[in-house]
Amino acid sequence: MAVAPVMKPAASSADPILKVEHLSMRFGGLMAINDLSFECRRGEITALIGPNGAGKTTVFNCITGFYKPTMGMMTLRQKAGKDFLLERLADFEINKRAKVARTFQNIRLFTGLTVLENLLVAQHNTLMRASGYTILGLLGFPAYRKASKESIELAKHWLEKAALIERADDPAGDLPYGAQRRLEIARAMCTGPELLCLDEPAAGLNPRESLALNTLLQGIRGETGTSILLIEHDMSVVMEISDHVVVLEYGQKISDGTPDFVKNDPKVIAAYLGVEDDEIEEVIAEVEEVAHEVEEGGQK
Ligand SMILES: Nc1ncnc2c1ncn2[C@@H]1O[C@H](COP(=O)(O)OP(=O)(O)OP(=O)(O)O)[C@@H](O)[C@H]1O
Fold first, then answer.
1. Of 195, 250, 273, 290, which has fewest CB within 10 angstroms of its CB?
2. Ligand 1: does its nearest atom lie under 6 Å from the Cβ of 55?
3. CATH superfamily of the domain spanning 13-99+193-288
4. Ligand 1: distance of its center to the CA of 46 in Å?
5. Where are the alpha helices (DSSP H) in the chain?
């Protein structure tokens, strides 16, 4: 007997870490995002999906401060209860004060530095604060020595989680592609984010690398409680690791719910097949007919 998918209500989170409300972004005559509202729940993995040009990267760029939205509010509530209105902060403040970290579609590592050095550079701010911003601080302050030791421990912790500890002393540029992606995520985790935004983390990965990525992300969710928001085209990754999926088309939300819910939502199927709204019923009927024929053929 088929088991009905468990559907969670999409927008009734008791503890959202991020609330996006009525977000719009206009580029000249193009409305890239149009009155978009959704939430990311604390400690969960939320995926933002949609066909090419749907506006996913633009939403990311608004959340992380690369773009100032034309309209709308984005409220990040930290664990301790402090709220940050992201649209009012500069990108470095979103990172430093609101504790939102991000990775990019194209990898941005310091390729000439070692894997370990990349993780230590990410903790530069913490180390500088501990030094009191003086040379004497660097040389003598116990606070700096303690922070320096802690930074190395944290870097080692994330190298282990990302399955990179064996490569700690190799130049980051020498790592295979999938390992560089995990290093970027480990580097972001060294900054202690409350929300980690990942732009297509599985792009270009082979199945083995994709599995290692899933393990890392599920470990982050399970062990640190860091909330994750990701854009992803690879549906196997989205369906396997997401708790919650938001689907965009032409800058608007067309579906919002559990992976099982959105996977079976006629509007999502139609968007990915590229059909008009009034053809949805027809397409669903055709899809069901084909599925039925395949099932009957298998039983013969
Ligand atoms: N800086 C910009 N200036 C003008 N138009 C832009 C800019 N950035 C994005 N756009 C346009 O906004 C729309 C949404 O683009 P966006 O990159 O956000 O979509 P996407 O869903 O991330 O697409 P993809 O999956 O292909 O990466 C597109 O029509 C794009 O051309």
1. 290
2. yes
3. P-loop containing nucleotide triphosphate hydrolases (3.40.50.300)
4. 20
5. 56-63, 91-96, 115-121, 124-131, 135-140, 142-161, 177-189, 207-224, 235-241, 259-263, 266-273, 280-299
Residues 24, 29, 32, 35, CA torsion sign: positive
The tokens describing 278, both together, are 């009034």
The structure tokens listed for 292 are: 């039925």
**Per-residue pLDDT tens for 15-33?**
899 999 999 999 999 999 9
Predicted pLDDT at 214: 92
Query: What pLDDT does 147 receive?
Result: 58
* Domain boundaries, given as residue ranges, for the chain: 13-99+193-288, 107-191
DSSP string, 64-103: TTSS--SEEEEEEE-TTS-EEEGGGS-HHHHHHTS-EEEE
Helix (H, G, I), strand (E, B) or coil at 41: strand
> Which residue's CA is the nearest one to ligand 1's atom 29?
53
Residue 213: name the closest of 173, 188, 183 by CA.
183
19: part of which helix (H) or strand (E)?
strand 16-27
Least reliable range by pLDDT among 17-21, 174-178, 232-236? 232-236
Going by alpha carbons, the residue nearest to atom 8 of ligand 1 is 58
Cβ atoms within 10 Å of 65's Cβ, excluding its own? 21
ipTM above 0.85, yes or no: yes
